[in-house]
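Hi,

I'm pasting everything inline rather than attaching a file, because the server keeps stripping attachments. The sequence lines come first, and each chain or strand is labelled.
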Amino acid sequence: GAVVSQHPSRVICKSGTSVKIECRSLDFQATTMFWYRQFPKQSLMLMATSNEGSKATYEQGVEKDKFLINHASLTLSTLTVTSAHPEDSSFYICSAIEGRTNTEAFFGQGTRLTVV
Amino acid sequence: RKEVEQDPGPFNVPEGATVAFNCTYSNSASQSFFWYRQDCRKEPKLLMSVYSSGNEDGRFTAQLNRASQYISLLIRDSKLSDSATYLCVVNRNYQLIWGAGTKLIIKP
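And the predicted assembly:
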């Protein structure tokens, strides 16, 4: 099946710094990418949807100035957590769909962010 | 009311039992439907797409009823390795709408 690579898998950062997470579709062009956050023992929570070349659509309650999403190409989307705080510590997962002929979503491996 | 609703769970069932998951969706414009499985601390993985005609993959059977806006997943002869959270996902205009998931615990 299609592969989505997410990097890094784990990151520890100091409070107040910014962290960038990359999501790449390796063998298909992703028209749409999704970013999710998952706190322990909770379900996936959609943060934002990004379409290549356009601004991301953020879910209610997600601060777009804090969680910067860039989907500059059909194979790469990035999520930058700016001025991270301990409450931003979570598991962040991206997924991508080709969209034109296939609506199956493929997931990255996830990034465990710990803010200390 | 959530757009995609699933049984709250968890389901605790003995090994070998048959387990049924239910999911309802509220938007009739929904176009495609999936079941995903998520193991603890891992990313979700596609289990099956769901078609109106129903589809089966080994011990797993998925059904879709568009008139009732209802999706189901049946697991027969459950194994210990089936323990996971099962997520119902609906695609509407390329927006993936997720159910909260139902946790399944298979006991020996």
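The two ends of chain A are 37 Å apart (CA to CA).

If the labels don't parse on your end, tell me and I'll reformat.
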